[in-house]
Request: fold
Amino acid sequence: MNTVIEVAILVLAGFVGFEVISKIPNTLHTPLMSGTNAIHGIVLLGALLLMPLASGAFEQFLLVIAITFGTINIVGGFLVTDRMLEMFKRKPEKPPGDREASPGADEGKR
Amino acid sequence: MVATAAISPNIINGLYIVAFSLFILGLHGLTGPRTAVRGNKIAATGMAIAVIATLLHPHIFHGSATPWLIGLGIVLGAAIGIPAALRVRMTAMPQMVALFNGVGGGAVALIAWVEYRHHYGGAFPLKTEIPSLLAAIIGSISFWGSNIAFAKLQEILPGRPIKLPGQAVVNLGLLIICLGSLITLSAGEHSQGLFILGILLGAAVLGNMVVLPIGGADMPVVISLLNAFTGVSAAITGVALNNIALIVAGMLVGASGSILTNLMAKAMNRSIPAIVAGGFGGAVAAPVRGDEAGLTVRSTSAQDVAIQLSYAGQVVIAPGYGMAVAQAQHAVRDLERALEGRGVEVKFAIHPVAGRMPGHMNVLLAEADVPYDLLREMDEINPEFPHTDVTLVIGANDVTNPAAKNEPGSPIYGMPILEVDQSGAVIVLKRSMASGFAGIDNPLFYEEKTSMLFGDAKQSVSDITAEVEAL
Reply:
């Protein structure tokens, strides 16, 4: 692919990112961060693509570590985010007593 | 150069487009509490599609060892990542995020290293070489910086700022070394040594140097900044490898990290360059210590606190990192319920940078089932302090420090704070008289209306709750 086009996509993706995430409630700062954290684990693809081209044990070693790192990043990131968000979901809006009563979390924000 | 021999590159690229569309949809979902769980799952689906699409490359299993090595890496990563993610306590979340972020940056740097070795001594087209070297620098900074952040949060390293003389100059010098190496290598110099020393090692030292002096309230800024760094380095790797999924996904993360970094820096009234250039306080003008100025603090007992709280009309709880360290969030929730049972109105004051990660307090209180509608952001709660009878500060220090408003000489002067000193009485729960993470003394503790309850926050809160219930 043409480098100019790639850089254009890069810049546009940045703007899309800014637009999509322009307003985040404070409540969700942590899940948003750990969620995006998981997404940059996508570098795993780079390591996968290079593996068949690796020449010598040292390069293979580096790439196995890179794949391990990328997988930790992806799997860990999404799981941790899911755990956190599940806690935000089961919000009892009623005072003590019926804690499990409102799994729907209709109130959403505030 | 990678996807050359592909039989169906269009199909693979098509799947990449599906994948990054799902990332965008998922991220959009993550910005609202109701859609967030689904958003995260959508993004995870996108990631699964991207990985599967990559494995569809016809040449990917070329070579007898390749499938095993790929399998080994993925199994190892899953074996480490899954238990870590399932076991981590909510209070340890900042470290975990830092660690996951670090490994991402590390992967970027390793990929760039392999890429450089491939082209070593041969033709290395600039359109691949420059992004590759840049990704190596940023990825390495992110890896080492995140590891230091992890070590500080995990208390392997001391949490206070570690300040070295001439820090800013040294950092600038390191940056020049990294960029100089990049230019030299791009200009046609072939040197493995320069790549390892100038790029990887230079950036590694820079990453260490940038995060070591950072303490306390600056931590959320740094964690978001490193997150943005890893994202951008992934995107640049995508340019080097001609991979559209990497480019888009990386930049989405870069954008979100930048937005968060900016929000955090604003919440502290500090510029990002100032934070990166050096942490709070440290060697600069040591603030007045209470004992030297002949000031004393008043300490109180759980029973007295219980009485004060029970007969108040409105109580505001201002939590900070200390609540996280002591795992006191459930005990705090019990206290809130006990007080509400006695007709006391309880609210929580959440400073944007309370804790060590953006939104840290919200996660902990959500874990403990504290309803959203009791949580108030700084701007909302500050006008309420004058009508508040008692404010209970639990392990928060810098974000309540009135020096930020009153003492132009203070290192945190100008940072917006929770104005707890405006309330009728202040009770501070603290482990000891040690100053906060930022190493700055807090005049709030010496005020007449302030009393201190020393001890482990969880224990103290439980004691207070027991006394309230016994009244």
